[in-house]
Amino acid sequence: MFPLKDSIPSERIPVINYLIILCSVLVFVYEKKLGDDLLSLFFLNYGIVPIKLFLPLDTVSLLEKIIPFITSIFIHGGFFHLLFNMYFLYVFGDNVEDEFGHIKYFLFYIFCGITAAISQIIMYPQSNIPMIGASGAIAGVMGAYFILFPHAKVKTLLFILIFITVIDVPAVVFLGLWFFIQFLNSMAQNTFEIVGGVAWWAHISGFVTGIIISIIYKIRKGY
To answer: Domain with 182 in it: what CATH number?
Structure first.
């Protein structure tokens, strides 16, 4: 399933959402200008390498440990990694920004990205593979959408064997299935250090963080 658009139009221009997408694209363009060696170094320096966080400060400084928690959110490993992340953000992020407001939405996005990364680090603290990508932060946005817009519909591109169709799926169903798939994949992934790949636990944590923050937000707003 791939989301094409949702049924709720934005009431104002999602400035932060557009800026996040633009920043991510510009960083990716910069990555493409680096050679393989420099790109690997870029990932190591600005992605999160869990094992580096536990090295002494005279080996890896505190700043070098902290900065990647922000920079890694804007780095992607390939074109389709970027494309899928940014399109999901485009579909779901505008309404969440509409609800939270520009500044709170940005802080929410970064916070979800950080908590998602921390969860992945807790699960695989000895990993030496750089963690990059906005997936955890975007999962937080999707978790917020799940709570804030339960009656929305998502126009979805559906692949059934050799057939392709477009159907309207309730947002709670689409996002619930997405979360369930992330959970199944996390259970199937036994050793991140060996197989590498997707940080499934970051997706789960980001989504749950978005849900919790949105529930608190609705309670405080009296929804």
So the answer is: 1.20.1540.10
